[in-house]
## 1
Amino acid sequence: MLRAAVELYRRLDGIPAVRVAVPEFLRELAPDFLCRQRLGLFDIAGALGRGEFEPVQRFAHNLKGCGSGYGFPRLTDLGREMERAAKDRDLPTLHLRMRDLSQYLAAVDIE
Amino acid sequence: MADTTRTPSCHVLLVEDSADSAVLVKHFLGASKIAEFHVVTATSFDLAREALARQRFDAILLDLNLPDSHGLDTFSRVRDLARFAAIVILTGVEDEAVATAAIGHGAADYLIKGEVGGEGLARRIRFAIERSRAIPSAPAEPKRAGLVTLLAGAKGGSGVSTMAINLAAVLSRKERSVILLELRSHGGTLAAMLGVNPPVTLDGIAEMGGTNALDASMSKLPFGPRLMSAALGAQPSDAPWDGAAADRLIQRAATLADHVFVDATLAQPAMVKAAAARASFTLLVLERDPVAIGLAGRITGTLADWAGRRNCVGAAFVNLVPFLDSAPLPAIRAELNCGIVGVIPPAREMLQSYRRQGPIVLTHPEAQVSIAYAGLAERLDQSPVEFLAI
């Protein structure tokens, strides 16, 4: 359901797909992982709207730790930058990186 | 025919608050062909503590930053609860310095999240387990060379536990600190005899690290000694004790007391072997009847071999009932092939009184049986132990 929504969103916005070659042994897990990050992104956007940085920092820390493990090094990089920005309460950077993350999660496709 | 292709089984506690990370690790280990991994997940330190109290693990995969514990402190706390498991730190690149520090404090390895996956993860864990088994426990603990005495019965019901209790009582009266250690995984008798319900089973104690945790887990008896015994009615655990675990426990107990009396049963020879090797003296407790003496004569040589030296095995007779036609002591000594260190006279009813009043050596110090126990305790309080001149 969520994957279908992402696909629709991507087509409507004309976002080109980013194809990521995920190792065979991770293909079973990667789609669910991406879904969880998409849902998490909604949550932290809400938290940030309430001025809460702690949930954002936790989310980013997890992203940083797990992204590469699931075959998405770009998510690890984004997680690292978001975690630092959340820790510094650097709202402009945080918004920029969350936008990057949102676009990546919308565009990424598993090869 | 034996199945030689069977992969080893590894029990792993994954302490990780990230569901994504836990899914990944479990997936990798579940697919591994080098070992059969059984993974239990704990998402906080408190849950990890509960898991460690329930079960023994070969390895612990530990994220240092948990909701209720952070950094190196997490490692120290887990290590104190599971001294003998291989602890592998799961960390991010930014926290590598902390992970390196944990290695200096006894962690087996550390893994950067996202950098090790697939069979590589399984291989690192297996390697950490094997390495931690091969290397003796590194952390320094206060060394106090307490005398370890193994008490073994030549046959069931010979009164080993009664003897251990009374010897411990005598030495406690002499201001010696004494630990009574009933070395069996379950179904022990010391706690039942003394009316104590130990707070932690021996399986739990074995997993505890550090002498402080061990000390806190013992029951303090009203007449002085501390007791480490199997819980009442405990069932055999899935991961039965081996000799190495018994040896580590005895070693650590010896750092906490002047005397450790190990009550072991020959029905668990791995335990007895480990205890004999660690003990300064092995006391074979037997009745003065031909069957017990015949049995004992067959095992004194083995006990001395396990101890690895001579004159460290001796017999103590308990006379539950008088054997008027028993052979004289010199003949018995020859048959036993070891010296005799004590002969306790018959006093069955009096000996049973400790259930209500305490050990007989305290309630009836003037009795012949108490005097005999005091003499035996005196000899065991010295090293080397002196045999009776018979």
## 2
Amino acid sequence: MKRFALLAAAGLAGCTAVIGPDASTSPEAIYDVVWQEVDRHYSFFAVRPLNWDSIGLANRPAANATPVQLQAAIRRLLAPLDDPHVTFRTHPEGPVFQSGSTRAHPVTFFDMIAVQRYVPALQTSPSGRMRFGKATPSIGYVRVPDFGGEGWGREIEDVLASLGQVTGIIFDVRMNGGGDNSMALDIAGRFTDSRRLIGYYRYRNGTRHTDLTDFVAHELEPLGDRFDGRVVVLTDRGVASSAEDFVLMMRAIPGTTVIGDTTMGASGNPLMRELPNGWLFQVSEWIAYTPEREIVEWVGLAPDIAIKATQQDFTARIDRALERAIQELSQP
Amino acid sequence: VSSARSALLLVLLCAPGNLASQTRSHSLELGLSLDRLDHRDDHASRLRYSGYLRGLRFGYRTETPASRFFTGFDLRDGSLSADLGGEQQTAEGSYSATYDRRVRTGISVGASVALSGRLLEHRYAIGLTETFVGGDLALRPVVRFTPAWLGRTETRVAATAAAMVFRPYSRAKAGNYGSPKFASPSTWRDVSIAIERPLGATGRFVYRYGYELRLNSHRAESGYAAVRNTVYFVSALRMRDRP
């Protein structure tokens, strides 16, 4: 038994020697970890070069102070990335700093109360994630405010069944900031009859800012019972991330029309990282492209029919994009 | 590479068929283990995560006074945590085959081939989860000591001589390690020492217990380092001996 105890003691003592000491939690060390992780993982350096060394050095002196000043230095470090998927928080439930927050919070004049003028009897799907109703006896309306959560995408079959015999569907994803793109795939899969290319991703995969994988195809696969009527997707500047994926999926399906405003152009898949003191931040680790290999980030996805909501419409509770969608689907 | 070649040569020279003339015992084994795992996997986090994994082992062992062959499956699962971090739900599985042959009194030398896989679901403090997978196929020279002065205690030492390492980045298509890469001891270090003693026997059942210390580190773009302390108990069902 003595031999067992000796070996176990050696094992526990050797722990630090093998794994290394715990990372320093000094302000400079925390700041340096953020800089290094972004330097190592951030994908958009490859297409939008920044002098990351200079940005890092410029803000580092201010990091060597109180936790509040360190947080400010980290925010200043991340701000030039102008990417809503780059975030930083000091507590899991605390406020979130978002780089590119001006882009992330656009004024769109979207108003759900105005929608109810056109779709008066809105119902809610079992998970509460989708609201739906009929704009006319033959036109269904489905509102998806976000793609957060998991496992509810297949409720679209219940929604379609509840809508009954409609010839057209309006998908309203305005102000949808994204979530889990498998929910978007679950919904869009009910509208395609075959596998379709919806875009490409390139992942950061090396230490150099230009190290990216080749183009990795992203495809939509048919799922369940297909709805074979016409579809309109309503978009605005608030459509981001997985919601932009959803727009890419739907516009790859023939017979789909996108109406509204250009989407946000916030497409980087975030990679979460932990700091040695427990703070959290995330960086984009891929670049999303359209099927034509055009970058989605900053540019967004333009609609087929552009209709931009105005403050006057908002005040008068008029939804011109929805009106146009109903008009489109009412035409034979 | 040369040590790997030597180990492989040793295995071929010591094939079980050469020992057919000796009395051979066979046993089926069922084991339970508890691992204390401390690791840092830079793919997931720079923090050190620690915790306990429960394990189950199924194995078959056949031996003569001069040689031993063991093959078995190991399954483990458990949860790791860090003081300031999230949680890592871990599941591991491995299949191994080990053959050794006595070269001197109390010393046997052989080799082990093991295929291991690991699934790690990292749950960040804000609730998001990310799944990491990894695995390796390793060739490990093994030395087993059973000198008289150690009584009935058996000591085994092993070190990886060569491995094919599969360690993709968080998303399988993203990394340079998306496909298995050859790793020599200069980048993939993996050594273990185990001591084992018999606990007793009832009828055809033989009981053993043991302790193993395993140290592992992988020096690559995103590093990995682990210390694993394992205590285990094995119940072996002896089957009829055959000449």
